[in-house]
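Fold this sequence, please.
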Amino acid sequence: MTTASNGYMNGYMKMEDGFPATRLFNQGYSYTYDDVIFLPHYIDFSTDSVQLNTKLSRNINLSIPCVASPMDTVTEASMAVSMAAVGGIGIIHSNNTASEQSSLIRSTKSHRIPFASTDIPFLSPDDSISSASVFNNSPCVFITNDKNNKNLLGVVDKLTWEGLPDKEARISSYMQKNVVTLPNTCNLKDVAGYLTKKEMDFVPLVSGEGEVINVVSKWDVERINGFPKTSGLPSVGENGEFLVGASIGTRENDKERLEHIVKAGANVIVIDSSQGNSIYQIEMIKYVKKTFPDLDVIGGNVVTMYQAQNLIHAGVDGLRVGMGSGSICTTQEVCAVGRGQATAVYKVSSVAAQSGIPVIADGGISNSGHIVKALTLGASTVMMGSFLAGSTEAPGAYTNQGGERVKKYRGMGSLEAMRKGSDARYLGDTAKMKIAQGVVGAVADKGSVLKFIPYTMHAVKQGFQDLGASSLHSAHDLLRCGVLRLEVRTGAAQVEGGVHGLVSYEKKSF
């Protein structure tokens, strides 16, 4: 260890500053991320040399430590595709039927480019188009025999329809037949080159069975090429397909769901429960590992070492940490149980590291600083809900609220989500009354994750540089050996650490 990193300077006595994590987190206080601050360490490397590659679970590696939460207003196919494209992963929610969840998984696996077109319109030859709203945001409408995305017969582009003298005419009388398509296995560079060479505005991408998987326009290409490039590799399997996870519950019918989603291609399973230390989850973990021994299983949620140890003994390949720390979660308020997220992550990571089990810090992530703290305290990845909600890739349509463009974001413990089935996550009985442990809200438009995730990761790298840690592994080592020091922030210190003393300001992260 260098003289500087050991705390000695030019022969002076060792100077004690701050507290090691072992001391700070053993005083009986429940700290969250804003309560604590790391003291800066010694820099001898550039920001660009910081490596953020990590493990999601025992056998799944990621280029960046980002996981999209299995919430029905956060992660479906579009989010999962984009997260995998930037090096993270999305966990498809289970607040739907097993068939619907499996379809979202297959859709994710069928893409090779960084985005998935949502709500592609399909009509039959006998239909007519009476309104431009039919096109949604798509440059065209696809024509099939059965109004689904197979057996493509033709296409109607919006410009052609707008020039029709008779808008009530049947589609069969003017649709473009013999549609030019490309295989869905093409990458963005191949698609872009083809559009330029053929001077086309858009091209559908189809599977080997003739199913329309995506539609890419020249404007999509320009948009994607304008986003910052990530330093990490996309999250793909040996077959070149994007990695994707899926959540399940702990009820008997979840065993049948498990069969469906494994067959659909899920690479990892997250057992979704607000309190994971239960006989129901332990039995489900054992069932999954017995039925599919090569499939990684992430258990949780947990916040204590005792909880974590129980799930580790049951055979989990990863742990999800957090209880009541999400922005839309009211578990701590309603049930009087939980833990401050900084303390929870540190405590669980301490015991998980002894068994080589990666930890996902789930909840409470509002900015890049929170990500730095979660990862340094022992997490291998962070799970994001509100951080990704409101993005282009999040499910749902934008609405206007108070002059601001927003999307709905709801907790899986909200009554609205529970009515669709998420009450199983809270060990609820569908035949009994439901007690809300979450709320329904709205989140401002954030734009595309393809843009703000790369910027966020660069900010995280800057944080690691200030800590003197060139990787997650290095940060964990520095924390464990006591080189990295922390302090608790007073309320005034937290105010001072943010924007203050201004009459007005505009805050932009990038």
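The mean pLDDT is 87. The two ends are 36 Å apart (CA to CA).
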